[in-house]
Amino acid sequence: xxxxxxxxxxxxxxxxxxxxxxxxxxxxxxxxxxxxxxxxxxxxxxxxxxxxxxxxxxxxxxxxxxxxxxxx
Length: 72
Prior knowledge:
Elements: H1 9-36, H2 39-51
């Protein structure tokens, strides 16, 4: 099977994405930069979710745990 235009498929995809990104940036720069200030606020729920992943299943019952230095 011959390649269209003699270039590999992945290179064609990369070129297409680069050209599309350039034109989207040039045409919508004001909208994109206006939305950038909201990204930290939108990231808060994701950060909260991933920061509290280790707390699951611990219902506050610490009676079965003994730490070093705690009297038994």
